[in-house]
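Issue 218. Parser rejects a valid record. Input:
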Amino acid sequence: MGKRITLLLLAVLLGSLSGRAQYRYARRDSTLTGFRPTQLIAPAVLMAGGLTIHFAAHETWDAAVRDKVLEATSGQNIVPFDDYIQYIPLTLHLGLGLTGIPSRHGIWDRLIESALAHAVCGIIMWPSKTLFHTLRPNEVNYVSFPSGHSAFSFTGAELVRMDYGWAWGAGAYGISTTVAFMRVWRNWHWLSDVLMGAGVGILSAQVGGWLLEPTKRLLGIRTGGSTDLALVPSYDPFSRTFGVSFGMTF
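Output the parser choked on:
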């Protein structure tokens, strides 16, 4: 029994050290890229679609989708889990790298990048809601267009893709798509709202990435080196209890 426990602890510890080594390797070999016109394709398509439906096809698209939703849900209350899962992509962006998963940026750069991206998102979103003054499908207020939940969630999802690649980005985008779907399904937003919100979110993440290095230079912020994370399990033979030691250095 004691030998098995020892082997298990060694395996976990080696896995942790391996994760740290992979993280350092990713940090050394990463190449930061600036603006590329192709980065604008996805947000431009989504925003153009949202604006087109909003102004030219509200009755034929937005209203038709809303009617189908009401027919399917029969006006029943639906658990508002989209209010909570919208934060998962942001959490993934900031937290995955701390578990040893290779990331394009270290934790401090990710914090700055995320702050910039979400600031841009807010700067675009709230004036837009006032400017467009769109009644929600449930007629609660006039701040329907664009969807804030969708914009926030897609900002996080694109940041995950940018820093960890599509292996993790696909999952983050799946969560954000679920958020957008639920905003329509719960009758809080029109189809055009969530399309526009998704486009704004993706664009905001890209802008955050473009502004990262210029912002650091402007403010004189220096980040570098590696972020180490260690989760080391332990076992007390006297009390027969397991424990975990956590350590992190910047």
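Fixed in the parser; the record now loads. Residues 1-33 have pLDDT under 50 and may be disordered.
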